[in-house]
Amino acid sequence: MTTLDQISQHILQTLSRSGRISNLELAERVGLSPSACLRRVQDLERSGVIKGYRAVLDPQQMGAGFVAYVTVGLNAHTKAAQEAFERSIARSPEVRECHNITGAVEYLLRVEAADLAAYKAFHTEVLGTLPQVHSITSYVVMGSPKDERA
């Protein structure tokens, strides 16, 4: 694990909110010279603290106005069942996130679809046909007052 001082934390916080900020503006915001700021960012990239940069997409603009979080319980608690489920989910473009979690179920998915009918088709024709799946619970997103995913 990399130990981060206050300046590095400030750099990371700024980049996580605005990944396309120029080095000059970033340096001004964190109180460094542009060359020192660039060195720090490059060190953070090399060390793996910064894994990459992404575009934040608007699901509605892309035709995916329906979002649900879905919990999935498996019928077998084996490595083979998990791997088979994960392979199937990796092929499903509707699943934007898949997390193996603790608790009463094994997985939490973030699913984006065009509308309720498209989600129902995914639920029935994809999740519902996987032999590893024992339970499915859907939580439909009605609004997202705070969403800092990048």
Task: Give your account of this protein's structure.
With 150 residues, the protein is of the alpha+beta class. It has 5 helices and 4 strands; from the N terminus they run αααβαββαβ. It has 2 domains: 6-46, Arc Repressor Mutant, subunit A (Orthogonal Bundle); 66-140, 2-Layer Sandwich (Alpha-Beta Plaits). 37% of the residues lie in helices and 20% in strands. The chain is elongated.
**Helix count, DSSP H or I runs of 4 or more residues:** 5
Helix/strand structural class: alpha+beta
Count all strands and give the number: 4
Annotated CATH architecture of the largest domain: 2-Layer Sandwich
What is the percent of helical residues? 25-40%
In CATH, the topology of the largest domain is named Alpha-Beta Plaits
Give the arrangement of secondary structure elements.
Elements: H1 6-17, H2 23-30, H3 34-46, E1 66-74, H4 79-90, E2 95-100, E3 107-113, H5 116-125, E4 133-140
Antiparallel strand pairs: 1-3, 1-4, 2-3
In brief:
Helix content is about 35%, strand content about 20%. It has about 150 residues and is of the alpha+beta class.
Entry keywords:
150 residues; alpha+beta; Arc Repressor Mutant, subunit A; Alpha-Beta Plaits; 4 strands
